[in-house]
């Protein structure tokens, strides 16, 4: 993998179940993630929407689909610009922004991930979230980032 | 995030940088609950589905790293509890102190340390880092605030650190 590499896109149709399942899976009981009237009348948004921890889980799934089971997430930082609603199609894409090795010999890859909601009719694509991910990857066939602990793990 | 602390009440400025709400989860980390996140995101990573893989790579079952915060989220109801049980109390304190009835999260940073394993009992504490001056967005007028949360296991190892940016607001045309 080298800087500039693009990851394969992942497209996901969002349904009310996607939103509610994700919220309850993260033990997020706040009503804007399952109660349409609360979301629209109180929050003033178009519908119930994907919650924050579930977006994090989608970013993890997307990146580790590509990097594999031996890779180990170090950190992620994301900004939610607009909400993701039922009826949206999420399109995850990413590009490698950095490849390197830290002071203890751990290999790292940095990625810029974009979560775009696909266009529908006259409504254009919109970037819902952007996410910077730093993930540890094996330096050799026998390397295992998960074996690192304490001062040997610098996420 | 730009800040304007000159208009912040003393009650708020005194909270900035102070660790609050240190607490320990009322339940153990549980593998079966993590399957809900894996199912919700259609995550087929063998590390979480194949015990031979997790044994080889991580010395046993671990939880998906991004499930970090769920192990500290309270039950919706439990005996003796009154009112809504919330996970990030400082966020709700800010809403109340500024009279901002609505709120959303805009940014989230998660740093992953020691893996979380079944049977762990997680603790955390919250630190208000900053509060902005009044801001107007398409949602309404309010303030942004940043809250850090550190998570530890029962061995006092750091398992992760999160930072949330919340925006509390009054919708345009609404009164508090």
Model description:
The complex is a heterodimer of chains A (155) and B (176). With 155 residues, chain A is of the alpha+beta class. Chain A has a single domain (10-152), classed as Thiol Ester Dehydrase, Chain A (Roll). Chain A has 3 helices and 5 strands; from the N terminus they run E-H-H-H-E-E-E-E. Chain A has helices at residues 16-25, 36-43, 52-67; strands at residues 10-13, 72-80, 89-101, 107-117, 126-137. A 5-stranded antiparallel sheet of chain A has the order 1-3-4-5-2, covered by helices on one side. In chain A, a hairpin with an 8-residue loop joins strand 4 (107-117) and strand 5 (126-137). Chain A is elongated, with a radius of gyration of 17 Å. The two termini of chain A are 19 Å apart. The relative contact order of chain A is 0.20. The model of chain A has no long low-confidence stretch (mean pLDDT 95). Chain B is an alpha+beta fold. Chain B has a single domain, classed as Roll (Thiol Ester Dehydrase, Chain A). Chain B contains 5 helices and 6 strands, in the order αβααααβββββ. Chain B has helices at residues 10-13, 31-40, 46-49, 51-58, 89-98; strands at 19-24, 102-112, 123-131, 135-136, 140-152, 158-171. In chain B, strands 1, 2, 3, 4, 5 and 6 form a 6-stranded antiparallel sheet that branches. In chain B, a hairpin with a 5-residue loop joins strand 5 and strand 6 (158-171). The longest helix of chain B is centred in the N-terminal third of the chain and has 10 residues, at 31-40. The radius of gyration of chain B is 18 Å and the shape is elongated. The model of chain B has no long low-confidence stretch (mean pLDDT 93). The chains are: A alpha+beta (155), B alpha+beta (176).
